[in-house]
Design goal:
The complex is a heterodimer of chains A (about 375) and B (about 450).
Chain A: H1 4-32, H2 43-52, H3 55-82, H4 90-98, H5 106-113, H6 125-132, H7 139-152, H8 157-165, H9 169-173, H10 176-180, H11 188-200, H12 204-217, H13 225-242, H14 247-259, H15 262-270, H16 277-288, E1 304-310, E2 316-325, H17 329-345, H18 358-361, E3 363-368
Helix pairs in contact in A: 4-7, 12-14, 13-14
Chain B: H1 2-19, E1 26-30, E2 38-41, E3 46-47, H2 53-69, E4 73-75, H3 94-99, E5 104-113, E6 116-125, E7 130-131, E8 136-141, H4 145-161, E9 169-177, E10 184-191, E11 198-199, E12 207-212, E13 218-223, E14 230-235, E15 241-243, E16 251-257, E17 263-270, E18 273-280, E19 286-288, E20 296-301, E21 307-312, E22 319-324, E23 327-332, E24 339-345, E25 351-358, E26 361-368, E27 375-376, E28 383-388, E29 394-400, E30 408-414, E31 421-422, E32 428-437
Parallel strand pairs in B: 2-4, 2-5, 3-5
Antiparallel strand pairs in B: 5-6, 6-7, 6-8, 9-10, 9-32, 10-11, 12-13, 13-14, 14-15, 16-17, 17-18, 18-19, 20-21, 21-22, 22-23, 24-25, 25-26, 26-27, 28-29, 29-30, 30-31
Helix pairs in contact in B: 2-4
Classes of the chains: A mainly alpha (about 375), B mainly beta (about 450).
Chain lengths: ~375, ~450
């Protein structure tokens, strides 16, 4: 009996009764001063008067109908908030103009219900735009998003997600390839690429750290990867003599030497000046365009290193040979075949290489790394 | 200044060391190739006697059709040929084929004696000027000429790509006729390219989801003959049938053979709960693999038979899970938006194909078995039921068009998402299951 509810009920009822009493008291005073004068009339007079006004009652009823409609517009606001009405166009038009505040409250409610933070930031934006542009354009776009989220959230959260993705899907949906692209979130492939490179260069760690030191000192020559590998060879050759020196000095030395191996090399081997970056690049591009990769095959996951010798006229001498691979036998064989075809097919009349530097390119080792071409 | 001094020092130290060394090979790294079909040439096979004239021409056309149909090869038309091959034994003039950029060349000869058909063929790598593999000779019947052509194409495909082919294979499917509300469904088999359709059942009762056995001798399917879905095993050769024993009131569906073909994994619905079971076909012994109140269905075994991928709504939406083939705790692999279903493990073992429903559209997609690298290959009003080619390179699925007049047909797509095309078929067809490469 003496539950908190009982007390609350008792207090509430007391308050209500008290308010009613007070209310009667306030209202009773103004009622007094309305006084009407009444004149007595006979039954005949009354009939005559009503006869004259007979058509009017018919008109009076429509006016009464108009009033209920006005009354309904006022409650219509809560009705739409509670349940998803089909949203007759005229009514929403009036509401947004008068009451922009109501839209924000329902939207936060939606955010609580569904797990989609990215989507709701967008709805808040339109209300902001609405006050800026009160004219007729705004109400209609606003009216649709409001009705849709409210209607959909209670039955199924997933549907809400679907509705919002609609905007994305039409873009993707047209072709399968376009569908693939948006899902590039699969970054692990790139990680694999790095691993592959590390595998190729056994002494990679120290040398990669040298690179930054060397480059700032010499911005001019753009020779990239191949030089690193010549550095590797040079650095290995130097390691014994420089072994006892300080590591930082050693790094610097190696970096400097690696950066400019050609100056000492050229006179010593009599192979002409070092190959320029553009000479390397044009050679690389020449093989590139014949290297046909099938991204769907298992061979597209295999990096192979292929060596071959060139004649002075740039043609391939004998057969290319496999040097190393990181895949299983069958995939490796396919990857090697593709690389071999590329080398042989694109030689046509002989690769265009500087004849005076033949000693530098008489033997070539190319690493074919398809990791960047895999399917995403 | 200090840097300059170090440089001088470095040069002094380096010069003798380098001077003693050969410059070594020129090293390059190539990361950007091209993706284009490999050009090949197939001069019409030689007819070694008059009877073989027609079939020799048909076989060479079908070989071209098979290879070019993969999207990985491009035919060089005979009009571009510089030299003709007048004899199978004649040495190949490589420069003539190099000149028209043919990278592969297939030559062949056909002999017909009575009902017997003999096909010989050789494959050449034009740019290295060598023969790829040994020449091969196939013996068969004249009626089976299509299989002979498929075998030539398979051998070529396999030698060039390093992966096995899929041309000499069959597909079991549900042939459909009639309007959507009164559709007649029959089991049928066809060649992978839609030829040689044969019906296995009549249209007296509804059949669903046929599945080839690993060696292609039997077909599992779901039959509504008794009113309840039951699983039937059908022998393809003699159309004999066997029914999987289930208790009354139980509904069994979504079956697949184990890799050895001796048992069946399937879904069993009993009292509103659906779980995955395995039944040994010989002994009839059942093992229940999942025990949850949620719906578990569409099991598919990994190629080594150690794991099962299946769909489950235990998380609230339909997602893909992998568990041990003996049951146990599954791990979820699909995490994207939308619903995932009908997973199928690739014969290569590296991918899982699935149907995805998202934003009112259906997709066929693939993901790695850890759920990474999800890629959607198709998108339409209704795509579903993927099945893998025997080499794991192509996915066939059924696509239904919208509306009451909508029809179902089968499509295939390369796992790269390229080369989407309809499988030629008379009338409606759905629920394909790709069988193995035939011996």
């Amino acid at each position: 009996m003496q539950t908190p509810g009982t007390y609350i009920s008792a207090v509430g009822h007391t308050a209500l009764i008290g308010w009613l009493i007070l209310g009667w008291g306030f209202n009773s005073e103004p009622l007094d001063f309305e006084v009407m004068t009444v004149t007595a009339m006979s039954g005949e007079e009354f009939e005559q008067m009503t006869a004259a006004q007979t058509p009017e009652p018919g008109e009076a009823e429509p006016t009464e109908l108009v009033q209920p409609e006005i009354d309904e517009t006022a409650p219509a606001q809560p009705a739409q908030e509670q349940a998803a009405l089909p949203a007759p166009p005229p009514e929403p038009v009036e509401q947004p103009e008068e009451e922009t505040p109501p839209p924000p409250p329902p939207q936060p409610l939606v955010t609580d219900a569904t797990d989609e933070p990215p989507i709701e930031p967008q709805p808040p934006a339109p209300p902001a735009a609405a006050p800026d542009l009160p004219p007729s354009d705004d109400p209609t776009p606003e009216a649709v998003p409001r009705v849709a989220p409210e209607a959909v959230t209670p039955p199924d959260n997933a549907d809400v997600a679907d509705v919002q993705q609609d905007a994305v899907v039409p873009d993707e949906a047209e072709t399968a390839e376009e569908v693939e692209e948006p899902q590039e979130a699969t970054s692990p492939e790139e990680a694999a690429t790095e691993l592959a490179i590390e595998d190729e260069e056994p002494s990679g760690a120290v040398e990669t750290s040298m690179r930054p030191t060397a480059r700032p000192s010499r911005p001019a020559p753009p020779a990239p990867e191949p030089e690193e590998e010549t550095q590797t060879a040079d650095a290995e050759a130097e390691t014994p003599p420089a072994a006892e020196t300080d590591t930082s000095v050693e790094d610097l030395l190696a970096g400097v030497v690696g950066d400019e191996p050609a100056a000492p090399q050229a006179p010593a081997v009599a192979a002409g000046p070092p190959m320029t970056g553009s000479e390397r690049d044009s050679f690389r591009v020449a093989v590139n365009r014949c290297w046909n990769v099938d991204p769907g095959s298992v061979a597209a996951r295999v990096t192979v290193e292929v060596g071959f010798n060139l004649n002075p006229d740039g043609t391939v001498q004998g057969e290319p040979r496999m040097i190393s691979s990181d895949g299983d036998q069958s995939a490796t064989q396919t990857a090697f075949e593709a690389a071999r075809r590329a080398i042989l097919r694109c030689q046509s009349g002989g690769y265009q290489l500087p004849a005076d530097k033949y000693d530098q390119w008489k033997e070539v080792v190319i690493t074919f790394d398809p990791s960047g071409m895999r399917l995403r | 200044m200090r840097r300059f001094l170090i440089l001088i020092l470095a040069l002094l130290l380096a010069a003798p060391a380098v001077a003693q060394n050969d410059p070594g090979p020129l090293r390059l790294t190539i990361t950007d190739g091209v993706i284009e079909p490999l050009p090949f040439a197939v001069p019409s096979f030689q007819a070694e006697n008059a009877e073989a004239q027609q079939v020799a021409s048909d076989i060479s056309r079908l070989v071209v059709q098979d290879l070019a149909g993969t999207g990985l090869f491009r035919e060089i038309p005979a009009s571009a040929f510089i030299s003709q091959v007048s004899s199978f034994a004649q040495p190949v003039a490589y420069p003539d084929w190099r000149a028209i950029s043919a990278q592969a060349l297939i030559t062949g000869a056909v002999t017909v004696s009575g009902d017997q058909l003999v096909v010989k063929f050789r494959l050449y790598d034009v740019f290295s000027g060598t023969e790829l593999g040994e020449g091969q000779q196939l013996v068969g019947t004249v009626q089976g000429w299509r299989r002979m052509a498929h075998k030539v194409a398979d051998a070529t495909y396999s030698r060039i790509t390093g992966e096995s082919g899929y041309f000499d294979s069959r597909v079991v499917f549900v042939s459909e006729s009639g309007p959507k509300d009164n559709r007649q469904k029959r089991l049928a088999v066809m060649d992978y390219d839609g030829a040689n359709v044969q019906f296995l059942t009549d249209s007296s009762s509804i059949v669903l989801a046929p599945r080839f056995s690993p060696n292609g001798d039997r077909v599992l399917y779901t039959s509504f003959q008794s009113g309840f879905p039951r699983i039937n095993v059908l022998n393809v050769a003699n159309v004999g049938q066997q029914q999987l024993g289930t208790a009354p009131g139980e509904m069994a569906f979504s079956p697949r053979f184990s890799r050895d073909g001796n048992s069946v994994i399937y879904s069993l619905a009993n009292g509103g709960n659906t779980d995955i079971y395995r039944t040994n076909l010989a002994s009839g012994q059942h093992i229940r693999l999942t025990e949850t109140p949620s719906i578990e269905t569409a099991p598919s075994l990994s190629p080594d038979g150690s794991q099962i991928v299946f769909e489950s709504d235990r998380s609230g939406t339909q997602q893909l899970y992998i568990m041990s083939s003996n049951g146990g705790e599954p791990r979820r692999i699909s995490f994207g938006e939308g619903r995932y279903g009908t997973p199928v493990w690739s014969p290569r073992g590296d991918l899982v194909a699935f149907t995805k429903q998202n934003a009112g559209r259906f997709h066929i997609g693939v993901m790695r078995t850890d759920g990474s690298e999800e890629r959607l290959l198709t998108s339409s009003f209704l795509d579903e039921g993927p099945t893998w080619s025997p080499n794991g390179r192509v996915i066939m699925f059924s696509r239904e068009t919208q509306g009451a007049e909508g029809t179902s047909s089968m499509y295939s797509v390369d796992i790269s998402g390229r080369n989407l095309k309809a499988v030629p078929n008379q009338g409606g067809a759905s629920d394909p299951s790709w069988g193995p490469l035939q011996p």
